[in-house]
Amino acid sequence: MAVALTTLVEETDRYLNAVKIADYCPNGLQVEGRPQVQRIVSGVTASQALLDAAVEARADVVLVHHGYFWKNEDPRVVGIKQRRLKTLLSNDISLLAYHLPLDVHPEVGNNIQLARVLGLTVEGALEPDNPRSVGLVGSLEPPLSPSDFMQRVRSSLGREPLMIEGPDLIKRIAWCTGGAQGYIEQAVAAGVDAYLTGEVSEPTVHIARENGLSFFAAGHHATERYGVQALGEYLAKRFAIEHLFIDCPNPA
Q: Which residues are recorded as binding a divalent metal cation (predicted)?
């Protein structure tokens, strides 16, 4: 079966409530391709490697978390931007990208999906008084030592996390996927035992140590693989079309 591109975009925008979420990039249809969609290829980032794989897979749409046209980037279509856009346009492939809407969604969002992968029980938002809060707070049942939880992260995500060891047991934990190390202050305020995100900055280590908090940096790419997969599966079932997730390895 096939679905009209306009119908697919409208449903995805509606499902993710994309119009109401302010962001650093345009969410939704970023590059328009053929009008009918039978196969979606999803991935974390619209890199050249993903685009080449999508061409080989005969995709009609590439669905990603990290797309193009970020605020303050060079607007010229040169270099890798020219090559990426040329690949999409010459093969009549559409690019659909959702950044923050895919982080915060309560069903297919990166943070809720990471909780399912790591076996975390969600209690609520990291910033309960902020309606646009991205991160979550939850619990580990049963509680685990930092080293045991690190092993769970390693085996679940297939990546060696950076760990700053805090309390003997992790009972409550906060997390926010991607480059959200700056939210560690909110994690401290939430009174959790540990905070997990994708990246780490130099001050993050000191903040964790001086507040007696365990900290885990499990990789920007590795923590954000699951939302786009779940969204792709939702669309495949909704419209009876094909979906293929392609993971282009990224150690960051």
A: 65-66, 103, 220, 224
Residue 103 among known ligand-binding residues:
yes
90: helix, coil or strand? helix
CA proximity to 178, closest of 242, 245, 117, 109: 109
Domain with CATH 3.40.1390.30 in the chain: 3-99, 105-223
Does the annotation flag 220 for ligand binding? Answer: yes
CA distances from 237 to 11, 14, 105 (A): 13, 16, 18
Q: How are beta strands 36-37 and 28-31 bridged, if at all?
A: unpaired
What is the third-level CATH fold of 105-223? 3.40.1390
> What is the DSSP annotation of 102-161?
HHH-TTT-HHHHHHHHHTPEEEEESSTT-TT---EEEEEEEEE-HHHHHHHHHHHHTS--
Q: What is the pLDDT of residue 154?
A: 98
User: Is 221 annotated as a binding-site member?
Assistant: no
Segment 165-206, tens digit of pLDDT: 999 999 999 999 999 999 999 999 999 999 999 999 999 999
Write out pLDDT tens, residues 6-60: 999 999 999 999 999 999 999 999 999 999 999 999 999 999 999 999 999 999 9
Instruction: Answer yes or no: is 65 a known binding residue.
Output: yes
Mean pLDDT of the chain: 97
Residues present in the chain in total: 252
For the whole model, what pTM was predicted?
A: 0.96
**Sheet bearing 28-31, strands edge to edge:** 28-31, 94-97, 61-66, 39-45, 242-245
Say which CATH topology domain 3-99 has. 3.40.1390
| 206 in a known ligand binding site | no
